[in-house]
């Protein structure tokens, strides 16, 4: 009985060993299949690429180009749309990437491309007053640019403004309309005349 039991035990062990061999062979087959797939992979991707190219849209002649400006200082977003410049017509997204900062392309389709620019300034809806040599000037930002245009300038006598006012103006004092900026400037100028 004891011997039979041992034989059975051996039999079980043998079976288990056989099972591990089967598992081992299975893994070897998997590895071989993986290696085969890896070797085949370049061919597979080559087959896929023409399909991708066919799916990849190009910019149509009738497409519109929208510039979306995100103004960081006032959080306003302004857009302007124009006809697609000839230089971009017929380009794929990848080709456009080569001509334009890639992260600015926020929408791309055959009919419309949106380019987003983040501008570290106020949008043109605001007027900003600064102190300049001998006076005060009011600026308005140009659309889509961090450049500003001088809208108005006023002469000021030295000492016309309080120190706090001068400090505010040295950083730029923001107004939501030209009228508000003008009213502020007029008050400062009259203050200067009075003094
Ligand atoms: Zn704004």
Describe the structure.
The protein is α+β, with helices and mostly antiparallel strands and 195 residues long. 44% of the residues lie in helices and 26% in strands. It is built from four helices and eight strands, in the order H-E-E-H-E-E-E-E-E-H-E-H. It has helices at residues 2-55, 93-97, 163-171, 178-194, and strands at residues 64-71, 77-83, 105-108, 112-119, 127-132, 135-141, 148-155, 173-175. It has a four-stranded mixed sheet with strand order 2-1-4-3, with no helix packed on it. A hairpin with a 6-residue loop joins strand 6 (135-141) and strand 7 (148-155). It is elongated. Residues 1-25 and 36-54 have low confidence and may be disordered. Zinc ion is lined by residues 71, 74, 76, 122-123, 125-126.
Put the structure in a nutshell.
The chain is of the alpha+beta class and about 200 residues long.
Offer a few descriptive terms.
binds zinc ion; 4-stranded antiparallel beta sheet; 26% strand; 4-stranded mixed beta sheet; 4 helices; alpha+beta; 8 strands; 195 residues; single chain; disordered N terminus
Ligand types: zinc ion
Termini separation comes to 123 Å
Cα gyration radius (Å)? 36 Å
- Helix content range of the residues, please? 40-55%
Q: What's the SSE pattern?
A: HEEHEEEEEHEH
The major beta sheet can be summarized as:
4 strands, mixed
**What form results from the Cα inertia axes?**
elongated
- Major sheet strand order: 2-1-4-3
How many beta-strand elements? 8
Number of helices: 4
- Unreliable stretches (pLDDT < 50, length at least 5) are 1-25, 36-54
Mean pLDDT over all positions: 77
Strand content: 25-35%
Structural class by helix and strand composition: alpha+beta
């Amino acid at each position: 009985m004891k011997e039979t039991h041992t034989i059975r035990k051996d039999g079980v062990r043998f079976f288990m060993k056989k099972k591990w061999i089967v598992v081992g062979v299975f893994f070897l087959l998997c590895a071989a299949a993986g290696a085969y797939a890896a070797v085949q992979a370049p061919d597979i991707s080559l087959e896929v690429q023409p399909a991708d190219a066919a799916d990849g849209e190009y910019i149509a002649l009738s497409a519109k180009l929208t510039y979306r400006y995100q103004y960081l200082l006032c959080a306003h977003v302004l857009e302007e749309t124009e006809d697609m410049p000839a230089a971009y017509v017929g380009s794929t997204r990848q080709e456009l990437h080569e001509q334009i900062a890639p992260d600015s392309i926020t929408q791309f389709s055959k009919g419309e491309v949106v380019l987003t620019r983040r501008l570290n300034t106020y949008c043109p809806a605001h007027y900003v007053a600064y102190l300049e040599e001998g006076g005060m000037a009011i600026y308005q930002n140009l659309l889509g640019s961090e450049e500003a245009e001088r809208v108005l300038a006023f002469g000021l006598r030295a000492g016309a403004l309080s120190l706090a006012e001068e400090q505010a103006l040295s950083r730029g004092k923001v107004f939501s309309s030209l009228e508000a900026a003008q009213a502020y400037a007029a008050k400062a100028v009259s203050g200067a005349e009075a003094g």
